[in-house]
Design brief:
Elements (H helix, E strand, L loop, with lengths): L6 H13 L4 E4 L20 E5 L3 H8 L11 E8 L5 E9 L9 E5 L8 H6 L10 E4 L7 E10 L2 H21 L14 E6 L5 E6 L10 E10 L6 H10 L8 E2 L2 H10 L56 H8 L7 E9 L20 H12 L15 E4 L7 E8 L9 E9 L1 H10 L46 E4 L5 E6 L17 H4 L2 E4 L9 E4 L16 H92 L1
Parallel strand pairs: 1-11
Antiparallel strand pairs: 1-7, 2-5, 2-6, 3-4, 4-5, 7-10, 8-9, 9-10, 12-15, 12-17, 13-14, 13-16, 14-15, 16-17, 18-19
């Protein structure tokens, strides 16, 4: 089905639904709104792998970065699946139900949207050994006996999501399917999971948890996981979805597809599978060049959790797990991770996209600093307009540096104007701020003005998802975000496309739930405001990090690329060595296990042989012993008689 509605109208409709008590819904098993405009060829379906066996807890702890929580009821948590080098393969949702003794003997692994099919199962199954005492079951659509469906309902506020879920799922569908009293049904809180049987014959397993596959800055809501027999002619999953999106359900949620989910993901600053989650990326080709450099569409982020702001998914206190050495190499670096994830906003008001697929067409440029620059490019007869939409792999440079100060690379780009506003959003991995800020100062360029509104020049009444704004003209200066390069103006290499770096929503300044401004005291421990002038600008915020912009022996020089490459090479070597050691350890464990089995078999055979020998020779031994004693008694009797004869002869 081809979508003919402009992206900005769709984006605004989606966000209006999110802010209401209707919400939006996704089917992460099937894209029910598939379009020939598939974004970068990425689907947004998930896959599910089931783990069974008494070694489930140990398997989860050994393979993934987060520890299994000790709970006596069903629970859900997120964990990272890392490469041996500590890079993110994927972020998984783990759903588990302990038995009556509190032991986890069964768990489900749900991948991130986009990691569909049997990829996860194929990656894990070669590393399951008999001593693990677990069994993996592929619950992807290729499974011919069980159908697994994952459906999510979300709103911008949790109480709206609860209202919509109870109204459109619990009362109308679950009660009918299970014939159970759901009037007093309580939805789970964050981290909890409800598991029960549904259907007239209790043939359907149903899990409900508070999760949306998107950050809370974007939306809150509930996910339902259904497992039912494919032979069921009227699957409960289809009835749930049909009820949610029925045309006559004017209070139901709006059903979304892959394009809409991707726009929400990028807008919320959430990394995704295949874009930021790329594991170790491509391998070296035969000619020695990295395949990721050959095409921007093949760019591999090769990011670790700290670079993606996913440090909360790692339990640094627990024992060995895959990727531990790679994570340790990053954590022991005093300067922190080499890159950080930022959001990049490319405003139509600052870019002439020639009325291409923006959805808004030509808009007047209202940024004086950029207007002259782009006017020259438009009017010069020999210069073509190289302003274009961003794409993964594009390099970013500081605006005005003549591409001498590289900032980072774009990893994801959403649909133009898909957020409902005249802008295109992207995600980028950006280098450490210290060298960039120092180079900006040395070239007398403008430092990032964090106090400016990131949507300066846009509609002042606009509201971002999941955030509240202070009324215009309040005079309240917002504290700075957690990332120093917030609001830095950048340009895509080899083009005229300009944008601004923004700290991802989870790291921007937030307002309290009652609308009050959070205390500036909360930020004092992070650093201080410097370069302030009376009656002038408020300066910029300097953090207490080793790579701050002031002169210090810990600062990296401007020519940071070589040092960064050397540092990354060292980390890679350590990670490769750790991976080799882990593989060797696994082989050693396997070899010892086989040797123990062989020794045990030999010992049992030897014992059986000895026992058989003893049982066969026992009668012969008894007979020989009796004969030996009889001969000894005869010899002693003869000796006694001879002695008595000598004595009689002597006396006579």
């Amino acid at each position: 089905m081809t979508r003919i509605v402009p992206p900005y109208i769709v984006g605004e409709a989606v966000r209006s639904a999110l802010r209401s008590d209707r919400g939006v819904c996704f089917d992460f098993t099937t894209d029910r709104y598939a379009s020939n405009q598939a974004h970068d060829g990425l689907g947004r379906s998930v896959s599910v792998v089931k783990i069974e066996g008494k070694g489930t807890t140990q398997f989860l702890n050994a393979k993934f970065s987060q520890s299994v929580p000790a709970k006596d009821r069903s629970f859900a948590y997120k964990t990272a699946y890392l490469t041996p080098k500590g890079r993110v393969n994927d972020v998984l949702l783990v759903v588990a139900t302990p038995d009556e003794n509190g032991l986890v003997n069964e768990a489900f692994l749900v991948t991130s949207p986009g990691n569909s099919g049997s990829t996860l199962y194929d990656q894990l199954s070669p590393f399951v050994f008999p001593m693990d005492q677990v069994k993996l079951i592929d619950c992807s659509p290729s499974n011919e006996s069980i159908q697994t469906t994952v459906i999510t309902l979300a709103c911008s506020k949790i109480h709206d999501a609860r209202t919509s879920f109870n109204k459109n799922v619990v009362l109308d569908v679950l009660a009918e399917a299970g014939n159970k009293p759901f009037e007093d049904f309580e939805l789970p809180s964050l981290g909890e999971c409800i598991h029960f049987k549904a259907g007239t014959d209790d043939s359907t397993d149903l899990f409900i948890l508070q999760h949306t596959f998107l950050p809370q800055e974007s939306c809150r809501g509930y996910t339902i996981i259904l497992q039912e027999d494919l032979s069921n002619p009227n699957p409960l999953a289809d009835r749930v979805w049909d009820n949610l999106t029925a045309e006559d359900n004017d209070k139901g949620p709006v059903g979304l597809g892959a394009l809409e989910f991707e726009s929400l993901r990028v807008e919320s600053g959430s990394p995704g599978f295949g874009t930021e989650y790329t594991g170790d990326g491509s391998k070296k080709s035969e000619d020695g060049f990295d395949q990721q450099e050959s095409s921007s569409s093949n760019y591999h982020a090769k990011a670790n959790p700290m670079e993606l702001h996913l440090g909360n998914l790692i339990d640094i206190e627990k024992g060995c797990y895959q990727g531990q050495e790679g994570i340790a190499a990053v954590l022991k670096n005093k300067r922190g991770p080499a890159r950080q994830l930022y959001q990049v906003a490319f405003y139509d008001s600052e870019n002439d996209f020639d009325g291409s697929s923006s959805g808004f067409g030509m808009l007047t440029i209202d940024n004086d600093k950029l207007a002259g620059f782009q006017e020259i490019a438009k009017n010069a007869a020999t210069i073509e307009n190289d302003t274009r939409q961003p794409r993964a792999g594009d390099k970013l440079y500081v605006l005005g540096s003549n591409e001498s100060i590289e900032v980072g690379r774009i990893t994801s780009a959403s649909e133009p104007n898909g957020s409902g506003d005249a802008k295109t959003l992207a995600l980028a991995l950006v280098k450490r701020p210290g060298p960039i800020l120092k180079a900006i100062t040395e070239q007398n360029l403008d430092l990032p003005m964090w106090w400016e509104d990131e949507d300066d020049g846009e509609d002042p009444t606009e509201r971002n998802l999941g955030s509240r704004r202070e009324d215009a003209g309040s005079g309240i200066l917002k504290p700075p975000p957690l990332d120093q390069l917030h609001n830095l103006e950048v340009v895509i290499g080899g083009s005229y496309t300009v944008g601004r770096l923004l700290a991802v929503p989870s790291r921007r300044y937030e307002y309290k739930s009652n609308g009050d401004v959070a205390s500036l005291l909360d930020y004092e421990k992070l650093g201080r405001v410097v370069n302030t002038e009376e009656g002038g600008s408020p300066g910029y915020f300097q953090y207490n990090f080793d790579d701050r912009a002031e002169d210090d022996t810990s600062i990296i020089e401007v020519q940071d690329d070589d040092m960064l490459d050397e540092e990354m090479s060292t980390i890679e070597e350590e990670a490769e060595r750790a991976a080799a050691e882990m593989e060797a350890a696994l082989e050693e464990v396997k070899r010892k296990e086989e040797k123990m089995k062989m020794l045990k078999a030999k010992a049992e055979a030897a014992m059986a042989k000895r026992q058989k020998k003893q049982e066969g020779t026992k009668p012969v031994d008894d007979e020989a012993e009796a004969q030996r004693k009889e001969e000894k008694m005869a010899r002693l009797k003869a000796q006694a008689e001879a002695a008595m004869a000598r004595r009689r002869k002597k006396h006579s």
